[in-house]
Amino acid sequence: MEIKKINTIGDLKKIGYKSLPVKEELRKNMIEFLHKGENPFEGIIGYDDTVIPELQTAILSRHNIILLGLRGQAKTRVARLFINLLDEYIPIIEGSEINDDPFNPISKYAKDTISEFGDNTKISWLHRSERYTEKLATPDVTVADLIGDVDPIKAASLKLPYSDERVIHFGLIPRSHRGIFVINELPDLQARIQVALFNILQENDIQIRGFKIRLPLDIQFIFTANPEDYTNRGSIVTPLKDRIDSQILTHYPRTAFISQKITEQEAQLTKEQKEKILIPELLKQIIEQIAFEARESEYVDEKSGVSARLTIAAFENLVSFAERRRILNNENSTTARISDLVGVVPAITGKIELVYEGEQEGSAKVAQILISKAIRKVFEQYFPNPEQIKKKQSQNPYAQIINWFSKGNTIDFLTSMSEKEYSAKLRSIPGLQKVVDEYQPDADDSMTLLFMEFILFGLAEFSMLSKFKLENGIQFKDMLSSMFNIKPEDDFDTEEDSDFFR
């Protein structure tokens, strides 16, 4: 259909154009997507068997929807993708403030225009991107913002009395007629404002300053809410909740693999970072495991949740920390290291809500604890558990490494250490490469070095070695000697805790 040639209501009639209510339009296009086996919610990962089928069902049922879930569960992103289910263009009465349907006008302006010009009434075409409106619910939102109010300036400029319907300034909801209207964080909306939505959802009526007007608005409503908000900041009033047809629960990624796919998709890296900084699979796994550990941590508020933004920001920081080292050493490229995980601490501290015990520890220390637990968890996927070896009294593959440290040897890993220094230090530890060769025989040179470093961190997490924080790096040494040589000034309960990740 060549829309440029269709400029009047008469032109629409000639081509046999039929208007559809917005929910019917969404349903029609959803059916088309299903027939083609395509997904209108492109880029939403981890919801294929849970949220998306429920969304499809709600759309087929022509329901208003509320997406209920903790922060960082892609609720707003899902809502924004609803525009993919709208027709690319729809006709409206030219000059209409509320997107009047040429065949079913509801505003006084549209009705008067059609009454005057008939089939010669001018139309314009509205793109689907202009049919989406989003409002963040905040305590200062008013009924006038959402529904409308009398506009004194309009009354004065048009020289009209306040009793004239033309002095009305329509709010966001009437201006979303024939489109999608989203209210984010619905519980934050004051109860009296929520009450104003009752009739719109059920009877399509609105009332503005006592004007006796009935606007049968045609809107797909989508709401988002966080269960935490129900007690912390407000609630959804029961009659409003009753009028929302489908409540769909969102969730965090069920597996680290899905979480990793989300992180890789959403992380904002430069072309140079992608080309010159290698992030091995091992480190990606640790990054994702941090979020899983946080969601189960006794220090983190479970009700608040741990957003997927944590792993995205942590991944970006890991890349940038490795990039900084590459630049300082004037190297062409580099591979991220286990010791680079110190760089992700700032990405964690701002994205976890702590319970009382966590506040006592401090956010930085909790972040370090989470990293430690993630390393410990992932370690068992690559190498034997040192504790299990000890219990079974079987041959210990780590014995040569531990014995070397027990003789008083130490290793310092500085954050800005060059690739050459990094390799030399790791290869100086007897038995370290032997363990990698035995359990990860397919590793190339760079991965062999990373696994060698990983073993040191793993042994420290299983209390086989000690790991101490230096001003610009970390130091590994024997566990027993470090216990007997604690200086009086060492205070492990302070922010300057010498244990790097504990």
Structural class category: alpha/beta
**How large is the share of residues in beta strands?**
5-15%
User: How many runs of DSSP E, i.e. beta strands?
Assistant: 14
CATH architecture of the largest domain: 3-Layer(aba) Sandwich
Strand order of the largest sheet: 4-7-8-1-9
Q: End-to-end distance, in Å?
A: 66 Å
The name CATH uses for the topology of the largest domain is Rossmann fold
Q: Name the assembly state.
A: single chain
Would you kindly provide a brief summary of this structure?
This protein is of the alpha/beta class and 502 residues long.
How would you explain this protein's 3D organization?
The chain has 24 helices and 14 strands. The protein is an alpha/beta fold and 502 residues long. It has 2 domains: 3-249, Rossmann fold (3-Layer(aba) Sandwich), CATH 3.40.50.300; 256-484, no CATH class. Strands 4-7-8-1-9 form a 5-stranded parallel beta sheet. A 3-stranded antiparallel beta sheet has the order 12-14-13. A two-stranded antiparallel sheet has the order 2-3. A hairpin with a 2-residue loop joins strand 13 and strand 14 (473-478). Helix 12 (256-266) crosses helix 14.
